[in-house]
Every structure is written in C-alpha cells, then in structure tokens.
C-alpha cells in the first residue's frame, strides 16, 4: 500500500518542490515523479534548467523516450497524465489540486499543501479521499510538527 505523507502550511510550494527534487536526486534512492498542472510543470522545468552548472538537476518530462525516463532522477508529469507503466513508480510528489491518477502504483506519495485557503481546502479533500480508502496518513507541518 502506498505510503502517504502530507506536508502542509508551506509558504512557497514551488520552491519547496524544487528543494525536495534536489534532495531526492542527490540521494539517488528512488526516482521522483513531480505531478502538477501543465504551467507548473513548465515552470519547474525552466527553473531546473536555469540553475548553475554546479546545481543542475538531471530531469525530463513524462513524454520523454523510455530510456531517458529510466535514467532521470526526476520526471515531470502533468497531473492529468496519471501514472502509466512507462513512468518510474518510486516517489510521487503532488503539487496538483486533485488526487493524482495512478498514485496507488507508487511506493510513496508526498502531498504538498500551501497556505492559501483554496489550497488548504483541496488538501483537506485529498486527505479525506485517502482516509476513506484506508490509507494510513502522516502529516508534517512546515513548522516541523509530525503526526
């Protein structure tokens, strides 16, 4: 069963996602799939390319050839694409408003929830969805508290 963790009260989900992607890539333990809307995926792609050479993070979009997908530590996927068999199934990082399609194929799902009211309500809705299906959920605040 997928391990699900919510990280909430994030003042800047975008920046947090970039830092988390870098952490996962440097650890090399599992591939990270970042799910978000098309505009956010494009912005993350640009931000990752704009880093200095020393900070460059290898990544690709989900429509890359299979060989590239297998070798990329970070894969950027539109939330609407879902988790098809071509994508790695290590860790899914969701920046989207809805429950990502195919999340159950991943070993781990990290849900990011910002401080905006709409984002909080979307996060609560996703929490209820997972909880109603019997997933054990963990919660971590941007302030360090865990449950």
Automatic annotation (TrEMBL):
<keyword id="KW-0808">Transferase</keyword>
<dbReference type="Pfam" id="PF04364">
    <property type="entry name" value="DNA_pol3_chi"/>
</dbReference>
<protein>
    <submittedName>
        <fullName>DNA polymerase III subunit chi</fullName>
        <ecNumber>2.7.7.7</ecNumber>
    </submittedName>
</protein>
<keyword id="KW-0548">Nucleotidyltransferase</keyword>
<dbReference type="InterPro" id="IPR036768">
    <property type="entry name" value="PolIII_chi_sf"/>
</dbReference>
<dbReference type="InterPro" id="IPR007459">
    <property type="entry name" value="DNA_pol3_chi"/>
</dbReference>
<dbReference type="GO" id="GO:0003887">
    <property type="term" value="F:DNA-directed DNA polymerase activity"/>
</dbReference>
């Amino acid at each position: 069963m997928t391990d699900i963790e919510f990280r909430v009260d994030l003042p800047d989900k975008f920046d947090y996602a970039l830092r988390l992607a870098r952490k996962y890539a440097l650890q090399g333990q599992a591939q990270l799939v970042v799910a978000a809307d098309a505009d956010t995926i494009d912005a993350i792609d640009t931000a990752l390319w704009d880093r200095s050479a020393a900070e460059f993070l290898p990544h690709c979009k989900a429509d890359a050839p299979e060989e590239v997908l297998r070798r990329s530590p970070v894969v950027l996927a539109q939330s609407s694409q879902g988790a098809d068999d071509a994508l790695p199934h290590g860790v899914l990082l969701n920046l989207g408003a809805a429950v990502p399609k195919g999340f159950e194929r991943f070993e781990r799902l990290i849900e990011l929830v910002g401080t905006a009211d709409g984002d909080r309500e979307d996060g609560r809705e996703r929490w209820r969805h997972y909880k109603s299906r019997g997933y054990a959920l963990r919660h971590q605040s941007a302030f360090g508290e865990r449950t």
